[in-house]
Amino acid sequence: MADQSPEIPQSIDATLKLLASADYVSDRSLATVLYLALKMGRPLFLEGEAGVGKTEIAKVLAKALGRRLIRLQCYEGLDVSSAVYEWNYAAQMIEIRVAEAEGVVDRARLGEDVFSERFLVKRPLLEALEPDTAGPPVLLIDELDRTDEAFEAFLLEVLSDFQVTIPEIGTVTADRPPIVIITSNRTREIHDALKRRCLYHWVDYPDAARELSIVKAKVPEAPQKLSREVVAFVQAIRREDLFKAPGVAETLDWATALTELNAVALDAATISDTLGVLLKYQDDIQRMQGSKAKELLDQVRAELRAAG
Q1: 130-166 per-position pLDDT tens digit
Q2: SS3 state of residue 297
Q3: pTM for this prediction
Q4: String of b and e for 130-168 (b: at least 16 CB within 10 Å)?
Q5: What is the DSSP letter of 187?
Q6: Of the candidates 228, 218, 137, 230, which has an alpha carbon nearest to the alpha carbon of residue 175?
Q7: 178-228 pLDDT, tens digit each
């Protein structure tokens, strides 16, 4: 079957256009490093605060290119059996018992049979190495900083040669390497050995103009005045001394929630009532409620009036 999926972009401008086609509003620096990662066949390592759109990059890339998205969600204690493969032991035991009941005595042949591919349970890293008629999939290794250094070390083989070794079967190598996106919220440092195998980009909070474009693209039903005030308020609140500043994901959630409440503009009472959509820690919510919310809102409105 011919590959009917969109082509890999051949320029930075084409990369910007590709992301925009899936409603991802990117800046040029991100589009540049993404273009280079695609062109050079290198993994892209994205660091940044939670909620700034790192995971979304992999999602929109898969959507825009018409490729399968394979996601490995990392967590503490992640091991090979969860990330790469494991054997279906229950099915193997049934096979062995059936063979014994039928009088099969060739143990070597039985061993080869039960450790064949039909008893192999494939996990994300192994799935990403398999051929696909739509083209190499997008492999998202999400929040790598949640795992330990032992798992990082294992990833080196995958990211260097796009292969994994299964002792009972042998080495599985990708005919065409997957597009690899790795994200980290930087709760710990990732080892240099892994970073050297990737291109790197820090995904920062967007400026007001880009964040407004994101809101317009993702929450088009929000009134224009509300969208402008929401973005300006979020930009202002990020400058406060908070335990966790809101990300773009929270901006979009808040704009959506306010639209559901039929708000056409911000007011202090509505802000206080809906801060739980925007902020996720009680101390931050308490700090921003009441007079502080009104103070920030007055400041935001003054800035918007001054900007015209």
Answers
A1: 999 889 999 999 999 999 988 998 898 788 889 988 8
A2: helix
A3: 0.87
A4: eebeebbbbbbbbbbbbbeeebbebbeebbeebebebee
A5: S
A6: 137
A7: 999 999 999 999 999 999 999 999 999 999 999 999 999 999 999 999 999
